[in-house]
Amino acid sequence: MATVLLIVLAVAAIPLILLVPSWVSTTKGSIKSRSDAESLRDASLLSSSVIVPSQITPWMLNQISRMEAADSPFDWNYTAFTAGPCAASNLGQLPPGQYSVAIRTSCTQLDLIQADYAGDCKTVAECAIPAEAYKRLASARSELLEAFSNAGFVLPYSDQEQQTGP
């Protein structure tokens, strides 16, 4: 009985010995390919990996809108205005000039507004942002749009311009 078992194992081992190296190399190649694809995807998703000056203002305007619509601490504190596009290393990539100064100033202003009124939005039940915060956010928005316009970038379309058809 033991002899038959050894013969069966030997017969089964021969194809396995021939196939295992190709399985291992295929698996390694697949893992490397997946890892490379994931690294490429991650690099493309990082907004702070490549700073395009014309894209910072729309990003910041989006963050201001999020803060204006905040009804929870998560929404109010969603963005850290000391990281991402507002990180010192990323701001250093901006070309010198009025636009760069405006972006730096806006990052600082938004960080201060966020911190000053964070206590007014501690929980979902107690998230009541005062009118003064909205005024400060509107002021920051106006300064950003003015700097964006002065830098020669296109302002967002008005509601009338976005309408299509006759």
Describe it for me?
By secondary structure, the chain is mostly helical. It has a domain at 53-150. Helices cover 67% and strands 0% of the residues. It is built from seven helices and no strands. It has helices at residues 2-45, 53-68, 73-76, 88-91, 98-116, 131-150, 159-162. Helix 2 (53-68) packs parallel to helix 5, helix 2 packs antiparallel against helix 6 and helix 5 packs antiparallel against helix 6 (131-150). The longest helix has 44 residues, at 2-45. The chain is elongated. Mean pLDDT is 80; it is low at 46-50.
Number of alpha- plus pi-helical segments? 7
Residue windows where pLDDT falls under 50 for at least 5 positions:
46-50
Oligomer: single chain
Helix % is: 55-70%
Q: What is the total tally of β strands?
A: 0
- Strand share of the residues? under 5%
Q: Which overall shape is indicated by the principal axes computed on the Cα atoms?
A: elongated
Main pleated-sheet profile: none
Which radius of gyration do the C-alpha atoms yield?
A: 28 Å
Q: Mean pLDDT, as a whole number?
A: 80
Global structural class: mainly alpha
Strand-and-helix sequence, N→C?
Answer: HHHHHHH
Terminal Cα separation, in Å?
90 Å
